[in-house]
Amino acid sequence: xxxxxxxxxxxxxxxxxxxxxxxxxxxxxxxxxxxxxxxxxxxxxxxxxxxxxxxxxxxxxxxxxxxxxxxxxxxxxxxxxxxxxxxxxxxxxxxxxxxxxxxxxxxxxxxxxxxxxxxxxxxxxxxxxxxxxxxxxxxxxxxxxxxxxxxxxxxxxxxxxxxxxxxxxxxxxxxxxxxxxxxxxxxxxxxxxxxxxxxxxxxxxxxxxxxxxxxxxxxxxxxx
Length: 224
Fold this sequence. Notes:
Number of strands: 14
Largest sheet: 6 strands, antiparallel, barrel
CATH topology of the largest domain: Thrombin, subunit H
Distance between the termini: 25 Å
Keywords: Disulfide bond
Shape: globular
Domain Peptidase S1: 1-222
Number of domains: 2
Protein name: Peptidase S1 domain-containing protein
Family: Belongs to the peptidase S1 family. CLIP subfamily.
Radius of gyration: 17 Å
CATH superfamily of the largest domain: Trypsin-like serine proteases
Strand order of the largest sheet: 7-8-9-14-11-10
Strand content: 25-35%
């Protein structure tokens, strides 16, 4: 298990670009990757509900550079699978954000992130979720002790002591609008706590902002 991802069409999923690199900045071979919609117990590959699909290709955003040591506002990629995913009660696509891009409009709004990332008790067998509140750029810069440009295609969210951790990269942050959930963020960067040697729970998590990148997403989907 490497990262999380989110279904956006029957043949496309979106994830974080850094998930598609192995060590030393070498891109992974897409044909060595697979995704398993419908999985619940990560140790059980015999569950009748899961749908294993092989990745045939992926497209990483042109602005993304794995060598970046700082924050990047283009940590996003689209993966294409070899067979259509079958939608059912357990497997559904997410809606792409369809409101304005302005981050200030969602400051203070709570989103949800789910995945099989590391928890306080160790590696997870079953998925869990955290609630994260979107914060403004000034608060983000102060908490991370880094300057976040106003034009950056990323944002921070406060997990209030519970944060996405190792293994949750690439998972989506979704926000409920009416009766539907919309994808607004992708887990990009968490902060390390040298005292506990795990994810810093008092630090914000950085998310790639999907809203200004949704036009790129549609272009990639149309082209593949």
